[in-house]
Amino acid sequence: MMAVTSRFLRGIPVDQHTATFDAFRAHMLKAGFEVTSSSSDAVFFKNPKDGFTASIDDGGDWTTTLTIGFVSPCVWPNGTKPPAG
Description:
alpha+beta, five-stranded antiparallel sheet, 1 helix, about 40% strand
């Protein structure tokens, strides 16, 4: 089982997309993520310590909307790791 979440950043002018991507990239690198793929309209990240992934991409047909997403590698039943035994 995986947990997936994404959020829309609306109202970002096209001329600010690059600056927004750069700020998100800097934040994710500081948080321990590594870039796994990058293009002018999307950047994908993975945290090698815990397997979480993240992304930022433009909205395609939505010129003033960016999408940020996160995926966890797994989710334990009831939210916690079962006791060893």
